[in-house]
Automatic annotation (TrEMBL):
InterPro entries from the UniProt entry: Cat_transpt
Regions that span the bilayer: 12-30, 42-61, 73-97, 137-160, 201-224, 236-257, 309-337, 357-378, 415-439
Membrane topology of the entry: Multi-pass membrane protein
Origin species: Microbacterium rhizosphaerae
Subcellular locations according to the entry: Cell membrane
Coiled coil location: none
Keyword terms: Cell membrane, Ion transport, Membrane, Transmembrane, Transmembrane helix, Transport
Entry protein name: Potassium transporter TrkG
UniProt signal peptide: none
PANTHER family hit by this protein: KTR SYSTEM POTASSIUM UPTAKE PROTEIN B, TRK SYSTEM POTASSIUM UPTAKE PROTEIN TRKG-RELATED
Highest taxon of source: Bacteria
Major location category of this protein: membrane
Amino acid sequence: MRDLATSSPSRFAVIVFALLIGVFTVLFSLPISAADHQVTPFADALFTAVSTICVTGLSTVDMYTHWSPFGHVVTYIGVNVGAMGVLTLASILGLVISKRLGLRAKLIAAGDTNPMRAHGGPVNEGQAVRLGEVGQLLVTVALSTLVIEAALTALLYPALLVAGVDPIDSLWQAPYYAAMAFTNTGFTPNSAGLAPYIDQYFLLSVLMIGVFLGQLGFPVILTLYRRRWRTRLWSLHAKLTIITTTLLFVAGGLAFLGLEYDNPATFGPMNPVEAAFQAFFLSAMTRSGGFSTIDIGQLHGSSLVVGSMLMFIGGGSASTAGGIKVTTFAVLALAVWSEAKGRPSVQAFGRRIPSDVQRVGLSVVAWGATIVAVSTITIAQITQAPIQDVIFDVISGFGTVGLSTGLTANMPDLAVYVLAATMFAGRVGTVTLAAAVAASNRAQLYSLPVERPIVG
């Protein structure tokens, strides 16, 4: 396994996730996992396992009524294993690639350990996680996950009591909600979801904080822990992640508020303050959180488009969120801006972003768009459902978000398998692409003649 991890990181990543999914598919198939003590159909068990390990949150069954207490415990364990697996696997693969392969591979490793390595100049190794510190890295990731979820649980328990939940039930629901928030999964431990808590602003705010922390990613959490409020010492990766995440959160909230303020099925009956809060809550959740206080299927088509755009971008690198990642979006936006301004290079915060970063960013976007397009066409043909619903659920699966218009729960088995594959590709696709790009780097001792095709 060690040789496989170093010789083919992409294959190693796929095998690890596939094995985890296989184990949890078996667990979900056991009669003890179902509330009726019957064997869960393979398609539902597989889809739930993929959704759990890939921390997506979509489901083909009612997660509350279908599973027994044992099944809920399996789900709780699965999302934590899946989330921590994503963090540690991404970081370790970055370190392995950085040591064994070329510059393009180091670019990917930079997203997990030290983004400043990518520019090829002097590097402050105080920002990095050295190969000899892998054990410390794993311990830090595990402890940060436990500490954050424990803190969220401590805040959620009294909030659930205030909301009228039984004290005994709250002992289970609080850690469950905490795990689903930090892992950006979005499963709920009750049949009605968050709808009964639509006016419980403290509870919803805690969930938003948990989702936000999960979206930042381990490299940013590590930077904040080491540098705290000394922003000048933050890595470029941390700055781009935090700023872009905040801007998208604000832009998404304003967009949802403007598009849905008069929708009688969503924000229409609310007063301005309530509507504004729910709009920003929805903006946070479309970034990979997966929780919802409203019926997503009742959103205007324009809002579904905005939500799809936010879900496609996703969260931070080496985080529990999916999508193409906010740093990819930020780098490409900076490249467009630099081209418009006629600048010879892409720059941010006094640093030059090399062309390797831009090429990999374009590759990640193309990879993601291809997955979404193929899956959308296939599922649309199978289900004959409205295309806006199909696109939304497919991007939700690819971005491991978990929001649904209601399509996923009613799909035939063939479409379920396609969406499960989309979730799997969305979770491991970026890592796989990174390793493939890195592995394709070969030394070339000559330079070909230059010829410029017409573009645009």
